[in-house]
Amino acid sequence: METTTQKTSLVDYYNSLMKDVEHPNDGLRKVYKLSRHICSLITQEIITSDESYSCLKDELKGYSLDDFRSTFEWDERYGISISYEMMIDDYEDSKSCSSKEEMMKYLNGETSVEEYPKYHLEDLDIDFWGTNVRPNIRVDNLRLKEQVSNQFVVTLQTTDTDFSLETLKGLLPSNVEVCSSTPIEG
């Protein structure tokens, strides 16, 4: 029974993301955060030691990936992120000066140098130390699963002539709707 409560709460949470927003993109940003949280859970499922960042952990604590899968549908895209550990030596450039005076103007700050010189990658000395490969999972098009409504056909026969459709509605729980009724003669 607890899963049903969580599922309802997730539905309510999702619906609340789109309510009371001043700008339509506010709701989309919140849904994006929810999608990133699901990405984090999927990554944790793939790499059990992974502690992926999630900006919603406190808000959604206690919900498993199965809870999200039973409530939502989404499209998944898979890739990898590669980070290279490296050390880059300082880039050194030189500029010719026409005189000692021109050189002194640069050294005294009277004339400025280019903040970021243009260089080619082959001008740099880079040492690679290792690589780290991690899953890169994207959750797109997050949406609630279509709610399935259960419809039953119930036949009620009674000899009570005062029994009405309103009486029947009064006997049923509030979440049950009577779609139609057909009186039987006899």
Give a short overview.
The chain has helices spanning 2-17, 24-46, 65-71, 100-108, 165-171, and strands at 72-88, 126-144. The chain is of the alpha+beta class.
The low-pLDDT segments are: none
Q: Count helical runs.
A: 5
The count of domains is 1
Number of strands: 2
Report strand order across the widest sheet. 1-2
Strand count, sense and barrel status of the largest sheet are: 2 strands, antiparallel
**Terminus-to-terminus distance:** 43 Å
Helix content: 25-40%
- The share of residues in extended strands comes to 15-25%
Order of helices and strands: HHHEHEH
> What is the arithmetic mean of pLDDT?
76
Shape: elongated
Radius of gyration equals 33 Å
> Class by helix and strand content?
alpha+beta
Describe the structure.
This protein has 186 residues and is an alpha+beta fold. It has one domain. Helix content is 33%, strand content 19%. It has helices at 2-17, 24-46, 65-71, 100-108, 165-171, and strands at 72-88, 126-144. Helix 1 crosses helix 3 (65-71). The protein is elongated, with a radius of gyration of 33 Å. The mean pLDDT is 76.
Summary tags:
19% strand, 186 residues, alpha+beta
SSE diagram, text form:
Elements: H1 2-17, H2 24-46, H3 65-71, E1 72-88, H4 100-108, E2 126-144, H5 165-171
Antiparallel strand pairs: 1-2
Helix pairs in contact: 1-3
